[in-house]
Amino acid sequence: MTTTADRPPAKPAVRRTPTGAAQRLEPLAERLLGGGLPVRVRMWDGSEAGPEDAPTVHVRSRRALRRLLWEPGELGLAEAYITGDIDLAEDLGDGLRAMRRAVSERGLAPPAPSLADRLRAAGTALRLGAVGPRPPVPAARAGLRGALHSKARDRAAISHHYDLSNAFYALLLDETMAYSCGYWTSDAPGYGPADAQRDKLELICRKLGLRPGARLLDIGCGWGSLTLHAAQHHGVRVTAVTLAAEQAAYVRGQVATRGLEELVEVLNIDYRDIAARPETRGAYDAVSTIEMGEHVGDAEYPAFTRILHDSLRPQGRVLVQQMSRGADAPGGGAFIESYIAPDMHMRPVGETVGLLEGSGLEVRDVEALREHYVLTVDAWRRTLEERWSDFVDLVGEETARVWRLYLVGGALAFEERRMGVDQILCVRPDRTGRAAMEPTRRDWYEAQR
């Protein structure tokens, strides 16, 4: 008979490592990222992986992985966020900023996925039950057809973004309805987005040298902030041009409300149709185009600058306020171009300056407003968050999440110098070379706060 003393000692219990979805995905994710996870990942089954002190990304369903299988990269991630399949535990801006910083500090450089990587990813997804048909594309995604930058396609692209509804933009913007970078001249209490927009509008009018009776062509007038300011405060006769029907209707209503019918004409036309109007050739003392040039294609931009030049009388001025990209940065990116500004094109500011000069214009001043756009976009984002339920009621949660991602990502792009925005002032000299410009910039800024 064997006694207890004769039995071999019991083996210590083996502590098994959890094998949830997070642990299954971690090796594959690290392989595809080129290093350790920069974020904490919490999966739909409650399993977690990644640094405990990093932002936490919630992967709420298998559908998120399926989206990434069908649409790898930025667009798949964006669509997973838009649909709520992925979320961040932290404020979205803080989370994205921390994630980018972690990627930069660790020097992660994702290698091009090999065939073996793709097969491994498919096998992991199969084991996790994430393989299946392509998930539905969110309704907010643009679906443009036709030749790039044809008039019909450009109208559809502009309508996708700007005809979302006047009610939406009235909720998002301040009372000026200016949907472009403000000019923040003060950090005093009570100074806010509307003040920054009015200061921007006044600065543009001063740079253009507008006087009562002058003629201004406002190409891409938006909801008429500059058109109305120039007419009401400077007595300028304005031809306002927009391709968006909702904008044209709004500006016409404001013109009637303010009694500016004698000073403002609103045209709902393509900018290319300006050249077909003989009465516009050399007819204007000034031309403005505020954040509209991003919607002009790269191949079409030289013809656009020629329209700016040809619309001016000799010694007339043009002001282009336009977003740019860093020399080594992409343009809008897959998310922006699919959901916000289809067919958008940005270039480094120096290239735009060269194109303007190539049309015969003389560039006289370039003012960078990059930091001003961080403040402007942050103000729009605060409004979105403070009135979130109103936005969801108006346009639905998916579209509201599109705009949250857009505004957060946009502010970060300007903050990190991947994007910029500049005011470029040009003049059309007369035949003798005279530009009739002020000798200094003093008058432009003396009335600013």
Q: Explain this structure to me?
A:
This protein has 17 helices and eleven strands. The chain has 449 residues and is of the alpha/beta class. A hairpin with a 5-residue loop joins strand 1 and strand 2. The radius of gyration is 27 Å and the shape is elongated. The longest helix is centred in the last third of the chain and has 19 residues. The N terminus is likely disordered. Strands 7-6-5-8-9-11-10 form a seven-stranded mixed beta sheet.
Strand content: 5-15%
The largest β sheet comes out as: 7 strands, mixed
Mean pLDDT: 89
Low-confidence stretches: 1-5, 13-17
Please give a quick description of this structure.
With 449 residues, the protein is of the alpha/beta class. Helices cover 43% and strands 14% of the residues.
Strand-helix topology:
Elements: H1 21-33, E1 40-42, E2 48-49, E3 56-59, H2 62-70, H3 74-82, E4 86-88, H4 92-106, H5 115-127, H6 151-162, H7 166-172, H8 193-207, E5 215-219, H9 225-234, E6 237-241, H10 245-257, E7 264-267, E8 284-290, H11 301-311, E9 312-325, H12 333-339, H13 349-358, E10 362-368, H14 370-386, H15 388-395, H16 397-415, E11 419-427, H17 442-445
Parallel strand pairs: 1-3, 5-6, 5-8, 6-7, 8-9
Antiparallel strand pairs: 1-2, 3-4, 9-11, 10-11
Helix pairs in contact: 1-5, 2-3, 3-12, 4-16, 8-9, 14-16, 15-16
